[in-house]
Amino acid sequence: MIDLFQQRIVETGRLPLFGFFVAFIVTFVLTRVNVRLIRANVRWWFRNVTAGDLHIHHVVFGVVLMLVGGVASLAVPDAYVGLDLVSAVVFGMGSALVLDEFALILHLSDVYWTEKGRASVDAVFVALAVTGLLLLGIRPLGYEGVVPDGTTITGLYVASLGTNLALAVVTLLKGKIWTGLIGLFVPALLIVGAIRVARPGSPWARWRYADGSRKHQRAVRNEKRFRRPLIRAKIWVQEFIAGRHDLLPPELLQRHNAAERARRRKLARAQRRAAARAQRKFAVAGEQRVSGRVRRRAMSRARRRGIARARARTRIRRSEAE
């Protein structure tokens, strides 16, 4: 194993690239473990880095590490392989921190744990795939046959390079991102991606597939039959490694909270109005009951007075008659 590492990595000059690759993976895994523990609100773990009310994202530290590693790799002479390896490791750490928040840079919003945040994991996977292919000695578009003096650059190579680039552009326009990127290292994939039908919703499909046409129906059928299961599998792998991305975006969450508060205020107002109406009805009913009792008492007093007067008049008549 050591001899194979010596032959394939050290002797071929890929040791800095290997250091970058390992540092990238380790930093990404540790970063995701850290943010998942912070998200779970574990008491014994770290908290977000803040300066007052300002949340400092780890992309900031990643940019600093990338600058340090990149400038150091340019400043270190070629003979100092160890220092070059250290610079590559620092650059790999910074790259992992930056790409882990690629969605934040893309959307200029804190969408880390939302559906849009999956773009960060996709960017990390792309970087790992490209770096891994480079580490295996596979070069994009076959440029490993070109030497610095340019003696091997021929018309055939230029034509092949132009053809591969054209196929890569067509594949990417058809919405096949992974096929186009990996195809830069394996040109046979570019041929397959450029020939096969485009994904529905891609620029190629919008330009060349009319709604309801045979190609459009075939694209939709292939999307449901082949693409959807692959997407579900990719999401499962992403969630297993990086955690679930199922939260509302912060701006939508603020709108949702504002709407919820408005709904609660409206409900409270309606309840207060209903209580006031019930109280008024009760008060009116009480007043009506009181007025009824007063009226009955007055009528009773009036009858008693009338009876008393009638009796008095009867007594007077009797006394006059006697």
From TrEMBL:
Highest taxon, organism lineage: Bacteria
Keyword Transmembrane set for record: yes
Region of interest (Disordered), ranges: 297-322
Comp. bias regions, Basic residues: 297-316
Transmembrane helix in keyword set: yes
Keywords of the record: Membrane, Transmembrane, Transmembrane helix
Residue intervals passing through the bilayer: 15-35, 56-76, 88-108, 120-138, 177-198
Protein known as: Integral membrane protein
Organism: Actinomadura fibrosa
